[in-house]
Design goal:
Rossmann fold; two-stranded parallel ribbon; 11 helices; 40% helix
């Protein structure tokens, strides 16, 4: 059986780490990415880790005319779909960009799958689909609340699109992975989170501030109903997260479940506040961080962390790396970027 996997958004942060794990598990990988928030040089890091360069095409998933020939040329057995705009704050400012990019790209892929006998799609979803939860930790049966941002709403709608498409009789399977907060970098420091321009995510902003690239980190609110007043998240190591995608692909391709759609939370089950994360960074880096408390940010959820039992017991996956190890990997990646003259 062919083991060729299409990874959309494969030069991005989570995508690139997943490509590494797929190649190390013996899969042939084809990446498509429009490089809107990533760099083609990421491929060099993948080669340095795995010894193999994945096939790469600069294609936008919303462009059906570009996608169609790719499916004719390559016999994909499965797809891992990362390609999406992903910043909560930006989505509030640019909702149409988020809806067009995040919805049309998935619809195009789903249309092509049955035509080309692609067996299944692993979809990159998010804990944002739960909105502000009634209680924590949160499991897969928790109610889906109105999304706090267009980004979160796009993930909710995409999940519904997948379910409706498969319910309509489409002969495909899907595993939906709801991530909590991915952070860190590959232990080799060959790949990591490399946002273009000002980081939208917390950890690269922390590490860039630690190096003096950013003057000051803003902590959005210290008056939440949490022990230290800052938001609480479930921070998961990106390599742990990447490994879950390989397990999900294998589960789907080997028909380990009769369910055509399965949903799993991917998290550690531990809530860590923003201020705790800053303190952890200062500890592992030996660097004092310049930060200030500012007003709350629209779209932010107060506190959320995973109940990962289903992923642990049914999927057979578990988060293994500690938060200290993860923050250390993020700092080593930032130092590596400075070494290379990237920033």
């Amino acid at each position: 059986m062919s083991k060729k996997i299409l990874v959309t958004g494969g030069t991005g942060y989570i995508g690139s780490h997943t490509v590494v794990e797929l190649q190390q598990a013996g899969y042939e990988v084809v990446i498509i990415d429009n490089l809107s928030n990533s760099n083609e040089e990421v491929l060099d890091g993948i080669v340095n880790i795995t010894g193999k360069r994945p096939i790469f095409f600069n294609i936008d998933c919303t462009d059906m005319n570009a996608l169609t020939p790719l499916f004719s040329e390559h016999a994909f057995v499965g797809i891992i779909h990362f390609a999406a705009s992903k910043a909560v704050g930006e989505s509030v400012q640019k909702p149409l960009l988020y809806y067009r990019n995040n919805l049309v790209s998935l619809i195009n892929l789903l249309e092509l799958m049955p035509r080309h006998n692609v067996k299944g799609i692993v979809f990159s979803s998010s804990c944002t689909v739960y909105g502000e939860p009634d209680s924590n930790p949160i499991d897969e049966n928790a109610p889906i609340k109105p999304a706090a941002s267009p980004y979160g709403n796009s993930k909710q709608i995409n999940e519904e699109i997948i379910k409706d498409f498969i319910h309509s009789g489409a002969d495909v399977k899907s595993i939906i992975l709801r991530y909590f907060n991915p952070i860190g970098a590959h232990p080799s420091a060959e790949i990591g989170e490399l946002p273009l321009g000002v980081p939208q995510n917390l950890v690269p902003y922390i590490t860039q501030t630690g190096l003096g690239i950013r003057e000051q980190l803003s902590v959005f609110g210290d008056d939440y109903d949490t022990p230290d007043g800052s938001c609480i998240r479930d921070f998961i190591n990106v390599v742990d997260l990447a490994k879950a995608h390989v397990i999900a692909i294998e589960r789907m391709l080997n028909d380990k479940s009769n369910d055509k759609v399965e949903i799993f939370n991917l998290g550690t089950g531990i809530g860590v506040s923003v201020l705790e994360l800053i303190n952890l960074f200062e500890k592992v880096s030996g660097t004092s961080l310049n930060y200030k408390i500012v007003d709350r940010r629209e779209g932010d959820i107060e506190k959320i962390w995973a109940q990962p039992d289903k992923a642990n017991n049914v999927l057979g996956w578990k988060a293994e790396k500690s938060i200290e190890e993860t923050m250390d990997s993020a700092w080593k990646w930032q130092l590596r970027l400075r070494e290379k003259g990237v920033m």
